[in-house]
Specification:
With 225 residues, this protein is mostly helical. It is built from 11 helices and no strands.
Length: 225
């Protein structure tokens, strides 16, 4: 049992490290030679990369951040299906019960890593793209449905943060509608709330009517784009 718990713990740690990989920071540093945390919203996520470098780099970071989430969940599936590891699974462990819980924990670890990267002094993005990747790995239907909500809201409002918040709220609803296991429902609630909390400053600007739309830059005092 000790070996099995160690393996599970290792997966969670790796998921966090995957989430922590600073895709946006590296992209902007390499292409423009600046620290993305010092421009725009200060986030290392795809939206701030979009505002800083344009659509191509923004889309590139979006895809890579989503892939980090996919890989984090793929590791859990690998753990339960890789034959040499089967010998270390205790007979008392029901894979159908353990796997959803480990997926949830690893997913939350990856989200935390993305927003609190160990490589960037525990700063980072707002965990939207990586959350989408995790959802696609858990259930492609829920992932696409959530992306659909995001796309509809952004098409109407042209505000990325509002669309991200709408998607974060919709996740839990889709989890319940599609009868997902309890751990996944809890992931939807916890992950959604965390993404919303990461958008606190955006919510303040939304209420004040100053949140920028796509095509507009966010410039904080003393910063430049």
């Amino acid at each position: 049992m000790a070996i099995w718990l160690t393996l599970c713990g290792a997966i969670v740690v790796i998921a966090y490290l995957l989430g922590s990989f600073p895709t946006g920071y590296i992209a902007v540093k390499q292409l423009k030679g600046i620290d993305i945390r010092q421009v725009g919203s200060g986030s290392t996520g795809a939206t701030n990369v979009l505002r800083t470098l344009g659509k191509g780099p923004g889309a590139f970071v979006l895809v890579l951040d989503a892939l980090k989430g996919v890989l984090a969940i793929a590791l859990v599936y690998w753990l339960f299906n890789f034959n040499p590891i089967q010998n270390y699974i205790p007979p008392t462990v029901d894979a159908q019960v353990w796997q959803p819980w480990l997926v949830t924990i690893a997913g939350l670890a990856a989200i935390l890593g993305h927003s609190k990267s160990i490589f960037l002094g525990f700063t980072g993005g707002k965990s939207v793209a990586i959350s989408l990747g995790i959802l696609l790995a858990i259930s492609w239907q829920i992932g696409l449905a959530t992306a659909g909500v995001f796309a509809i809201v952004v098409a109407i409002s042209r505000i990325v943060s509002l669309s991200s918040i709408a998607g974060a709220i919709a996740v839990s609803i889709f989890m319940v509608i599609l009868h997902q296991p309890l751990p996944y429902i809890l992931f939807g609630i916890a992950g959604g709330l965390y993404v919303i909390l990461r958008h606190r400053s955006n919510i303040e600007r939304l209420l004040a009517g100053t949140e920028p739309k796509i095509g507009q830059n966010v410039v904080t005092p003393g910063q430049t784009i």
